[in-house]
Amino acid sequence: MENPAFGKRLAEYCQRTVSRGSAVSPHTLGTACLGFDCCASPALLSLPVVGRLFRGKKHRPAGSPSSPGSLSIDLVFPSVLGSFNGALSTVPVHDLGSTVIREVLKRAAVAPEEVSEVIFGHVLAAGCGQNPVRQASVGAGIPYSVPAWSCQMICGSGLKAVCLAAQSIRIGDSSIVVAGGMENMSKAPHLVHLRTGVKIGETPLADSILCDGLTDAFHNYHMGITAENVAKQWQVSREDQDKVAVLSQNRTEHAQKAGHFDKEIVPVFVSSKKGLTEVKTDEFPRHGSNMEAVSKLKPCFLMDGTGTVTPANASGINDGAAAVVLMKKSEAGNRGLTPLAQIVSWAQAGVEPSIMGIGPIPAIKQAVAKAGWSLEDVDVFEINEAFAALSVAIAKELGLNPEKVNTEGGAIALGHPLGASGCRILVTLLHTLERKGGHRGVAALCIGGGMGIAMCVQRG
């Protein structure tokens, strides 16, 4: 599985682009991402920022359009990303969701009463009240008559919500759907089992972030161990992981300073003793990251001398939300909206849970095949950086050009709010394609429990 050509290409690219700034601190804080808006049609999804047309064939596999129409995503906007226990930590998750829903509807010029359905990914729901997505929908001014619900596919939840919205439009159940994801990991509670009481002794608390989000249910170990398994099986060195981590931070730093995220971000107003504070800048990125500082951090999952995964080459624990508006391409045309892109295909796949991080490999292959593309046809890949080890293994296995992957940085720099990340990377993909003049893009994520999800989009 070793790919010397890839390793050499990665090293050369990092040499050209990685800066040597100040030391980077461990990535233990999370970021929040907020909203997109898009439109889609019952047959093909046309995305305002990035999308792809479905190609009609007599036999259409799941995830391909069933009619010549196309689904559009008209606008996509993520919110600012907040660190774990940071600026967004006190904001209820449904308020994060409401913020992005209101903004995408406003930018898409869609009235709340015109929405057919709201579908959001959300993972850590304990203590959030009954149906948090319904709370977010009503809080955004959408009428009680409009249904709202959540889907749970761990890290893939936000992108799965977009797939479900596309399917709902395709079969005629809905005409305009708001889809996305939301998560406030800072507010995830600790749990204690006291339903029948405790007669004697101590009762341990369970961290819901770990037990419901970051621990493999089949092997009962942290996602970080699955990353170590991938690093070992795909022969990914600590140095290669650190190079990807620093490259991610440096790319995000450049993107922030160049204003590349400005169109994506929706500011969030947070109440404090001093009044309302506007949070409008991603908190998590570590500017000035460099190999010297990153290489000093110790492994945090395997500490027996064989570990390679550290806080710096893993994604963070974050808070945020993201949303898109989907509608038929014809509906977008009637409204005078220019779609950002079209959804061409999507796919999901399962793998052995102990190496869940390679889930995007079969998912990307299947989605690209359904689209009738080759990997070489793709201009930009957004593949969630849950861990750098996974990023290296996926790129090696698929033979991807590093200059096409996560060109604005990824979750190692921006953060990984579980339920929101799938939609966040789709938004970033769409805006990146638009800015670069690209036409074809792929968004993909690995999923705890041993799965992967991918979506192909196309502009123009």
Give the helix/strand layout.
Blueprint: H1 4-17, E1 45-46, E2 71-78, E3 82-83, H2 93-108, E4 117-121, H3 132-139, E5 148-151, H4 157-170, E6 176-184, E7 190-191, E8 206-207, H5 208-214, H6 223-233, H7 238-257, E9 268-272, E10 275-279, H8 291-294, E11 318-328, H9 329-334, E12 341-350, H10 360-371, E13 380-383, H11 388-398, H12 411-414, H13 421-436, E14 440-447, E15 451-458
Parallel strand pairs: 1-2, 4-5, 4-6, 13-14
Antiparallel strand pairs: 2-11, 2-12, 3-11, 6-11, 7-8, 9-10, 12-15, 14-15
Helix pairs in contact: 1-7, 2-3, 4-13, 6-11, 7-11
Helix content: 25-40%
Task: Report the C-alpha radius of gyration, rounded.
Answer: 21 Å
N-to-C terminal Cα separation, in Å? 36 Å
Number of domains in the coordinates? 1
CATH T-level topology:
Peroxisomal Thiolase, Chain A, domain 1
- CATH class call: Alpha Beta
Show unreliable segments. Answer: 13-69
Architecture, CATH level 2? 3-Layer(aba) Sandwich
Task: Write down how many β-strands occur, each being a DSSP E stretch of 2 or more residues.
Answer: 15
CATH superfamily: Thiolase/Chalcone synthase
Biggest beta sheet summary: 11 strands, mixed
- How confident overall, as mean pLDDT? 85
Class by SSE composition: alpha/beta
Q: Tell me what portion of residues adopts beta-strand conformation.
A: 15-25%
Keywords: Acyltransferase, Transferase
Pfam families: Thiolase_C, Thiolase_N
Domain Thiolase N-terminal: 81-330
Protein name: Acetyl-CoA acetyltransferase, cytosolic
